[in-house]
Amino acid sequence: MENVVATEPGERLLNLSPERFTERPVFGSPTVYRCAVCGESTRFQLGRKNPKPFTPSIHAALDAAAGPPVPWETDYTDFCCLGCGIPVRVTYEIHEFAMSSYRYMPLCVYEYVAGS
User: Contact, 53 vs 85, CB < 8 A?
Assistant: First the structure.
């Protein structure tokens, strides 16, 4: 049995800072995920998709949990925890605040947990 756990960004992501007008969290630099399973911190890059360890069933489970991204408004990044290797998807909003200048605001962290 496969399970995807959805978590608020502030519980798993480090280096978030408040956006100056709305106070919503935005990604800082570097973008870092802290694993709930092993506690390891993993740096990741926004926009990366299709890591080699992701099987079609992992992609399908994360796609079903997160839903499709909205072009030019939302996106996601997939990666594996460096400590225990669990698959992770981080979804985020894309805000263009000036021509070709963007803020990325995290929406949710999805962790794929395989079980029996």
Answer: yes
Distances, alpha carbon 2 to alpha carbons 27, 46, 92, in Å = 29, 25, 23
Give me 30's structure tokens. Answer: 């570097």
Pinpoint the alpha helices (H) of the chain.
9-12, 56-66
57, 61, 86 from 42: Cα distances, Å: 23, 22, 11
pLDDT single digits (tens) 57-92: 999 999 999 999 998 899 999 999 999 999 999 999
Residue 12 in contact with residue 6, Cβ under 8 Å? Answer: no
Give whole-number Cα distances, 75 to 18, 45, 83, 94, 114, in Å.
20, 12, 25, 7, 24
* Cα–Cα distance for residue pair 107/111, rounded to 1 Å: 14
